[in-house]
Amino acid sequence: MTENPGGEGPSAPDVPDHVKRTVVDLIAAYADRNRDELERAVPRAADAIDEVLSELRVVAAFLSRRVQATGVVWKPADSREAVARTVAEMLPPELEFAVSTAWEAHTVGEEEAAERLTNGDPMVYVHMLAAFGAAIGLAVYKRAELVSTLRQVTGLAE
Fold it and tell me: What's the whole-number mean pLDDT along residues 140-156?
C-alpha cells in the first residue's frame, strides 16, 4: 500500500476503479441514509465481494486512524451504537440484526461469534464495514468532505 500523492492516506492502484466506486457508494449511501443508493450499490458489491471487503477494510483502517489523529474519542461502545444506528431502517430486520450483532461481537474481539452471526454471508461484513465507515467518517467529516476524502484516498478522480 502506498500513500497517494496528496499524502491523504492509502492508495491501492491494483484495485479496480469499479470496486473503489462501489466502496465509496456504499459508505455514502449509509452516510446519507439513502436506501435507494444502498440497493443500487449492493449488487455491485456482491459481484466483487472479496475485493470490496478488502477495500472496505483499508478504508475503515484509514478512517479509524483519522479519528485517532483528530482526538475524537471513539470507543468500542460508540462504534457498536453508531453501526446499529446507521443500519437501522436501512436493512430488512433480519439483516439489520445480523449486522448489528456481528459488529458487536467483532468490536469486542469475538471473531468466532461474529462469524457465526453472519451465517457465512460475506454481505453482512460488507454492510458492517460500510456502516462503520459512514459512522466513523461522519464523526470527523461533513458528508461532502467524507465522500471527497474517500474518493481521494481510494485514488478516484473527483
Answer: 93
The string of DSSP codes covering the chain is: -EE-TT-SSEE-TTS-HHHHHHHHHHHHHHHHT-HHHHHHHHHHHHHTHHHHHHHHHHHHHHHHHHHHHHT----HHHHHHHHHHHHTTTS-HHHHHHHHHHHHHHHTT-HHHHHHHHTT-HHHHHHHHHHHHHHHHHHHS-HHHHHHHHHHHHT---
Number of domains comprising the chain:
1
Query: What number is the average pLDDT over the span 38-51?
Result: 97
Threshold 0.85, pTM exceeds:
yes
Residue 96 lies in domain:
2-154
For cell 474519542, name the residue: 73
